[in-house]
User: Which sequence fits this backbone?
């Protein structure tokens, strides 16, 4: 196993805390995660929110807040609220909740919604305190959708970095996206490491990525070590000198046809990948240490 294999805390320690809340990211750092992974969407007034979904009902208490009732709309057949319709002042009143019913619920209603600048400041503070670098690995969610509403990730990230100030040596910002044109712009303007996200069923032309990006964040099924196709894809990515981060590993939801989640995670660690997205980063870190 590669010594460089990073434990990437997927939405923080989202298996143990409500995803993307302060306690999820802080716990991930305490558990020894190398990387904390936020998703980014916009508020109506241009703040970069640490949220996975465009809407707010799944992961916050907005549906129980009477003051927001009149602001709801029907989204995909369900009553919901879009983050891009609410101001940061409004969103800051919400509290995070655990969307997975089998996961602990005791932190529901405690953590407020974070912004990218809050998470960068946390990483820098904790990195200084622990004397190690903590990487913030941010995914820009639905850039083209936001662009149609006049919201630009490149400008917003540049402004956030200017406001937060120097991150090095205790923190760093990496970027990832399924929409690769945004990554091109972030590399060109800000020099940020950029990783192209590749889904389970997406077309993959490795030549299109080589020399353009630092690596890929790829659905784990695409490089399944039990299949010839998986090993072939892995070899192609290696030949292109791309760093490889695989997603997502969950102790409470192992992949298809694996004996258990630890057997799955251990098999991918044995591939010498540069990083693994994990919902339970503490348990992943312990397994990595145990396997050496």
Assistant:
């Amino acid at each position: 196993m590669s010594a460089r294999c990073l434990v990437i805390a997927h939405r923080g320690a989202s298996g143990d805390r409500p995803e993307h809340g302060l306690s999820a990211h802080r716990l991930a750092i305490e558990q020894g995660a190398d990387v904390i992974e936020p998703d980014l969407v916009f508020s109506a007034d241009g703040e970069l929110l640490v949220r996975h979904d465009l809407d707010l009902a799944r992961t916050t208490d907005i549906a129980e807040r009477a003051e927001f009732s009149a602001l709801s709309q029907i989204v995909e057949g369900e009553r919901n609220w879009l983050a891009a319709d609410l101001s940061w002042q409004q969103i800051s009143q919400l509290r995070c909740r655990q969307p997975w019913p089998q996961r602990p619920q005791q932190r529901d209603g405690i953590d407020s919604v974070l912004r990218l600048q809050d998470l960068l400041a946390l990483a820098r503070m904790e990195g200084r305190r622990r004397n190690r670098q903590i990487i913030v690995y941010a995914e820009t969610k639905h850039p083209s959708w936001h662009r149609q509403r006049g919201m630009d990730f490149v400008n917003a990230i540049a402004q956030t970095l200017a406001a937060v100030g120097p991150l090095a040596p205790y923190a760093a910002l990496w970027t990832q996206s399924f929409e690769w044109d945004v990554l091109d712009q972030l590399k060109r303007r800000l020099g940020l490491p950029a990783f192209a996200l590749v889904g389970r069923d997406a077309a993959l032309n490795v030549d299109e990525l080589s020399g353009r990006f630092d690596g890929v964040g790829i659905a784990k099924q695409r490089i399944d070590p039990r299949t010839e196709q998986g090993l072939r894809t892995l070899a192609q990515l290696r030949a292109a000198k791309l760093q490889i981060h695989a997603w997502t590993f969950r102790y409470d939801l192992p992949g298809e046809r694996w004996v258990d989640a630890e057997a799955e995670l251990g098999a991918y660690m044995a591939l010498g990948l540069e990083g693994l997205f994990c919902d339970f980063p503490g348990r992943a870190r312990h397994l990595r240490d145990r396997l050496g």
Summary: The mean pLDDT is 97. DSSP finds ten helices and twelve strands in the chain. The longest helix spans residues 116-130.
